[in-house]
Amino acid sequence: MSSVLLKMESYPKGKSVRFHGIAAIISFIAYSSIIVLGFVPITERIDESGVSTSELQNTTDKTQVDFIVASLQDVISDVYLLYFLDYLFIIAGLILLFSIHSLIFLKLRFHARIRFLPLAGLWFTVLSRSLDALENLWVLLMVSNPEGYPSILIWLVNTTESIKWFAVGLDYGTAFLGFLIVLVLSFTGNLLSNSDSE
User: How far is the C-alpha of 149 from the C-alpha of 139, rounded, in Å?
Assistant: First the structure.
């Protein structure tokens, strides 16, 4: 397990704290802007059709899915734009969480036992964002072929979403826990201690 985690170590170590900090700020601005300027107005336009993409991603009944997919055809250009922005959102989120986990790793680099936490977070980031991208792909395959999409896509959407949210929880959980550890070690004066180093 440690060897798998260490494969990710080269990324945070290969960049400076300044680099990761700037990347975090820029990606956070992009992340927030996509939500406020993109998701909110486009989702409102899609909702005017009487259905939403979130309903599609949470529905397992074939008849109901068929109805939602057919209804979305009236706003299909907005649906495509929404998922295009969502892919940009995934990239921004990937950079943001990579930067956060990397900053935490650099702060904990002298603590051999707990420095694996942010490294695990990096892997969870990759997993959660990859699953998010896959989920979007399944939905796009459905709405682009409303009359002939294979039923297995419904199962793939729901299964991928469930696993994705579990991975997202691990991703944000490790980031939050790592941040708390950095705060505790900072207050106790042990942040730069190498008594626990290899």
Answer: 10
Domain-located, residue 194: no
Task: Flag whether 100 is in a domain.
Answer: yes
- Per-residue tokens: 171: 């991703």
Instruction: Find all residues with CB under 8 Å of 15, minimum gap 6, and list them.
Output: 102
Q: Are 146 and 70 in contact (CB under 8 A)?
A: yes
Q: What percent of the chain has pLDDT over 90?
A: 70
Type and span of the H or E element at 196:
none
Q: CA–CA separation, 107 vs 182, rounded Å?
A: 7
Number of Cβ within a 10 Å radius of residue 24: 19
Looking at residue 190, its pLDDT comes to 63
Average pLDDT for the chain:
89
Structural domain span for residue 28: 15-186
Residues 6+ positions from 136 with CB-CB distance below 8 Å:
83, 86, 87, 90
Give me the residue label for tokens 């945070």: 12
**Is 196 within the bounds of a domain?**
no
Total domains present in the chain: 1
Q: For residue 8, is it within any domain?
A: no
Given this model, what pLDDT does residue 189 score? 66
Residue 190 tokens read as: 């042990």
Count Cα atoms within 13 angstroms, Cβ side, for 80: 8
